[in-house]
Write a structure and sequence with these properties.
The strands form 4 sheets. Strands 1, 2, 3, 4, 5, 6 and 7 form a 7-stranded mixed sheet that branches. A 6-stranded mixed sheet has the order 11-10-9-14-20-19. Strands 8-15-16-17-21 form a 5-stranded mixed β-barrel. Strand 19 and strand 20 form a beta hairpin. By secondary structure, the chain is α+β, with helices and mostly antiparallel strands.
């Protein structure tokens, strides 16, 4: 597999740009390959393949920072027009120095999937879901595969290249009992190249989706009060994922993080761990360099409940007089460099428990299986949250009566401190391109506003 730096057209393009008067050129190239296969009613519903390449140019143009986004290296008139329009506009952006080395970090993860075999597994998963009690319809039963290749090239043709990608299975099941309807979605990482493992994972996820859809039937109201809470793994991952910016250097410096001034202080329970692991097989974001070319590494954000490490890109690190932690990432190809992460994993430094053990230990509490309004209902500066939720009352040691249309509220640091049990069932959620992985957790209490 050749790299963009080996393409004569790339070298010619950069030479041409120099002749036009550009200097300190940095070319970002993003290539995405994707495959989506979905079935419905035992027939292939959708088969979509994509292969796109996008380019982003940064340079000094007429002595000022300028940038341009193009679909092809042949779009040169559009490029020059964009450089003219953006020159001197983005006064807070800088172009870092030349790349210190040329390296190809790509793992070349893309493997052609046997579409017939994938379709057969999807049909099997759909049948397994519909065989479950009260399951009425499978709205989505889908295999998704992607690979992103990210390449940075400077004006001397020094380069760094990395890739990122994975395969996932997603299902959404509708349950019905008379006039009562409930839906549940489940997903997981799979490998189409390991057919038996793929089949087992897809079937397990499909059955779980059907089970949770059934558990949501006949939902009633919940009285207001303080309840012991179990956050299902996907809910815990979603909520924690939205608070990851509290660990970003620029937010701590600007006091827009609830953790500002709390470095090396205890902010969670004694056995709580939160780590970034770009090499973990539990997550879907596996990189070897960030978008600035800095090597990534494993980090402890929280260890034994203590706030240990801050995440920096080059700019925020320089402002704090330290080095980048390899967390410089663009939200998209045309955006300014920001701070982000790869895979962030919540785990226990002590014992772990099965979901059944956690629920049995939370008699009279509430099992939260879904939250809504998370973008509007979370505040990273104060740490407060207020979210519309649904789930089940915990009675007789199991998830029983379904409840919905109530609000849970609290503070993320208080929630971290009040964690009493951490499960052994991690799943992932993608939040702002970060893969957040979490098991089910038991929290001492949260305030519930119901009827």
């Amino acid at each position: 597999m050749t790299g963009a730096w080996e393409n004569p057209e790339t070298a010619e393009f950069i030479s041409w740009l120099k002749r036009q008067g550009a200097s300190k050129i940095r070319l970002f190239i993003n290539r995405r390959k994707s495959l989506t296969l979905s079935v419905q009613r035992q027939s292939l519903k959708n088969c979509k393949y994509g292969d796109t390449e996008l380019y982003f140019v940064e340079a000094l143009w007429k002595g000022e920072y300028a940038c341009a986004y193009i679909d092809s290296l042949e779009d040169r008139e559009e490029l020059l027009r964009s450089l003219d329009e953006t020159s001197g506009v983005f006064t807070d952006r800088i172009i870092t120095g030349k790349l210190e080395e040329s390296r190809d970090f790509r793992g070349q993860r893309w493997r052609e999937a046997d579409r017939k075999e994938v379709t057969e597994v999807l049909c099997l998963a759909e049948r397994e879901a519909l065989a479950c009690e009260k399951a009425d319809f499978v709205e989505i039963c889908e295999y998704r595969q992607y690979e992103d290749t990210i390449t940075l090239i400077d004006e001397d043709m020094n380069y760094l290249s990395d890739d990122d990608g994975d395969c996932t299975f997603f299902i959404r099941v509708i349950a019905r009992d008379g006039d009562f309807v409930s839906a549940a979605s489940k997903f997981g990482v799979v490998s189409a190249q390991e057919r038996e493992a793929f089949k087992e994972t897809a079937v397990r996820i499909a059955r779980r989706g059907a089970e949770y859809a059934r558990l949501g039937l006949h939902a009633g109201k919940l009285s207001s009060g303080s309840y012991a809470i179990v956050l299902e793994n996907c809910v815990a991952a979603e909520l924690t994922g939205h608070y990851l910016p509290v660990f970003y250097g620029e937010n701590l410096k600007n006091h827009t993080s609830v953790l500002a001034g709390k470095e090396k202080q205890k902010v969670g329970c004694p056995f709580l761990r939160l780590s970034e692991d770009p090499f973990s097989s539990q997550g879907t974001r596996r990189r070897r360099i960030d978008d600035e070319g800095v090597p990534v590494c494993k980090k402890n954000l929280l260890k034994n409940g203590v706030f240990e490490e801050v995440l920096y890109n080059k700019k925020s690190a320089a402002e704090d007089g330290t080095q980048s932690t390899g967390n410089g990432f663009k939200a998209d190809l045309t955006a300014d460099m920001g701070t982000s992460a790869t895979n962030v994993i919540l785990s226990s430094g002590g014992d772990t428990f099965s979901k059944r053990e956690i629920i049995e230990a939370t008699e009279g509490g509430v099992y939260i299986t879904q939250v809504d309004g998370i973008f509007a209902g979370t505040d990273t500066e104060s740490g407060n949250f207020s979210l519309l939720a649904s789930g089940n009352r915990i009675t007789g040691g199991q998830a029983a009566e379904a409840v919905h249309q109530f609000t849970i509220s609290g503070n993320i640091c208080e929630l971290w401190r009040d964690i009493e049990m951490i499960g052994d069932d991690p799943v992932y959620r993608i939040t702002d391109d970060v893969c957040m992985v979490s098991p089910t957790i038991k929290v001492k209490s949260l305030m519930v506003s119901g009827e």
